[in-house]
Amino acid sequence: MSQFGSAPGGQGIQIHDFSPGVSETGLFWTVPVAPETVVFDDALDSVSLRIPSLDMPDAFNLGNSLAEGPTVPGNVGFEVVWTATGPAAPVRSDAHGFAGEFRKARATVAWSGRTEQSRYESDTAEGSKTVFAFVGRERNGVFLR
Question: pLDDT tens-digit profile of 34-58?
Answer without folding.
Answer: 999 999 999 999 999 999 999 999 9
